[in-house]
Amino acid sequence: MKETSISIIVPVLDEAEGLAACLSRIEPLRTAGVELIVADGGSTDDTATIAQGVADCFVTAPRGRASQMNAGARSASGDVLLFLHADTRLPANAIDCIRRAVATGAQWGRFDVRIEGRPFMLRVVAALMNLRSRLTGIATGDQAIFVCRSAFLAVKGYPDIALMEDVALTGALRKASRPACIRQRVVTSGRRWEKHGVMRTIVLMWRLRLAYWMGEDPDALALRYGYRPRTHKQEPPGELR
């Protein structure tokens, strides 16, 4: 039986400082046949130079994780697409976990997460994220979302919105099937939480999430989050190769 092929898609924007370390952690997976795609949103530092020296494919797209990840998906050759933030580390057996999940019928899934940082509350935040995701079937990008290409195409990929693109994608996927909730943990950076304060960030994220579910424009939410969205939106990802 043919082994399930996997493409890892890493969206980046001015990530030169930590990108080499990120890609070096993925390198052993490439030697095992995993495809690495870096999707850049217009970096002005050395991100492109670093990525082009390592990745199987380097693509550019209009700024925004949704736009960039859709662009990466268009260039992917894998049966399964794994979307990985540059500041998130996979567990050592991540690829085996994904292949086992897909072999048992899962169309998509995510990992549990641990947030790296000194404040104890980050452990609480991670535990609540994992529990909420398990109960609701909704995942965030920090949890390393993976999806079979057929399922990704069926929901037309990531909606090109400025914020909550991961919630929107997994909400659409959930309507077709429940996710595989892999208990092995990815490790993601707590820099955002530590920079703005853990409790303040918790309150902000819950307010933004509630506003999103109540129908507020994601562009407006992005501005409240501190991110200025693009004015021009992209089409859905179209056919993958």
UniProtKB/TrEMBL annotation:
Q: Which UniProt keywords apply?
A: Cell membrane, Glycosyltransferase, Membrane, Transferase
Keyword Glycosyltransferase carried by entry: yes
Chief location category:
membrane
Q: Which GO terms describe its molecular function?
A: glycosyltransferase activity
Q: Which residues form the Glycosyltransferase 2-like domain?
A: 7-95
Q: Name one Pfam family in it.
A: Glycos_transf_2
Highest taxon in the source lineage: Bacteria
Q: Per the record, GO CC terms?
A: plasma membrane
The reply on keyword Transferase is yes
Localization recorded for this chain is: Cell membrane
Record protein name field:
Glycosyl transferase
Q: Which organism is it from?
A: Parazoarcus communis
